[in-house]
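Suppose a colleague, Dr. K., hands you the sequence of a protein chain of 105 amino acids and asks what its three-dimensional shape might be. Before reaching for any lab equipment, you can write down a predicted structure in token form. Begin with the sequence itself:
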Amino acid sequence: MILTGLCRLGRDAGLRYMHDGTPVLSLALAYNYGKKDAQGKRATQWVDASFFGDRAISLQPYLTKGQQINAYIDDISYRTIPTQGQHAWDIPARPHLQPGIHRQC
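The predicted structure, expressed as tokens, is then:
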């Protein structure tokens, strides 16, 4: 499955390191979809995405909460999260940001 389009970052990108020293950049991406409701809002789908390697370090300062990015995401999967009285899904993915279009002005 591939997801592509304009999204917003729901929080500042978080940089961490794996046990072997590999940098990992975690992103919370929000995509709006569907038709607007009576209040003029569309539903939001959240995607948890991660970058690995040197690119994670170089992109981290630019990926801040509210920033719009054009993302191409593959390697998507989903899993059910246990909640009380609701169905919730977690969608982990691997994003690709193309040079020159990863920041929207």
